[in-house]
Amino acid sequence: MSLPDKSPVNAAELFSAATRAAADILASSTGVDALEHLADTACRLVGARYAAIGVANADGTGLDEFVVSGMSDEAKLLLPDKPKGIGLLGFLINRQTPLRLDDISAHPSSVGFPPNHPPMKSFLGVPLCHGGVCLGSLYLTEKEGGFSEQDEILVDALRLQLCVGIRNLQM
Questions:
Q1: Which of 12, 25, 46, 88 would bridge with 34, disulfide CB 3.0–4.6 Å?
Q2: What is the rounded CA–CA span in Å between residue 56 and residue 126?
Q3: How far apart are CA 143 and CA 159, in angstroms?
Q4: Tens of pLDDT, residues 32-51
Q5: Cβ-count burial 139-164 (b if 16+ within 10 Å, e if not)
Q6: β-strands 50-56, 133-141 pairing
Q7: C-alpha span between 169 and 131 (Å, rounded)
Q8: 54 has which bridge partners?
């Protein structure tokens, strides 16, 4: 898949981001650390304020793990619990294609945010599937001007590294 000519990210930058992501997986002391690095990379790649990676449980009915990029440790502590995979996050577990929204709250599967959650509106959700099995999802939010097809293409370039990161966590 090639990037459109109007892309602000050239092939060398994309290759560099993918290579750094692979190196982060190898250098991380835990699977969660690797996923945090990957979420950070995805955030920077598309210009999102927040990113998260949800790891699907074995039966695909919810999330076993959830890592976040873009929130301070203090802000994370104010949230009640890690998401379990209901609402829009659960909807993505059973999806094979990305989902772009200008307003998260307008989607029929949206159930809102818990207390102390930062406001979020624009959204790009990318299922992380490999070999017909959904391992989890990447969630990106709060990009000025919203997310584009080009952002989907950029994130797709990291999909394999994201799947490897999830498999490493599961092992």
A1: 25
A2: 13
A3: 20
A4: 788 888 899 899 889 999 99
A5: bbbbbeeebeeebbbbbebbbebbbb
A6: antiparallel
A7: 18
A8: 66, 137
The full 3-state SS of the chain, as one line of letters, equals CCCCCCCCCCHHHHHHHHHHHHHHHHHCCCHHHHHHHHHHHHHHHHCCCEEEEEEECCCCCCEEEEEEECCCHHHHHHCCCCCCCCHHHHHHHCCCCCEEECCHHHCCCCCCCCCCCCCCCCEEEEEEEECCEEEEEEEEECCCCCCCHHHHHHHHCCHHHHHHHHHHHHC
Contact 89, 83 (CB under 8 A): yes
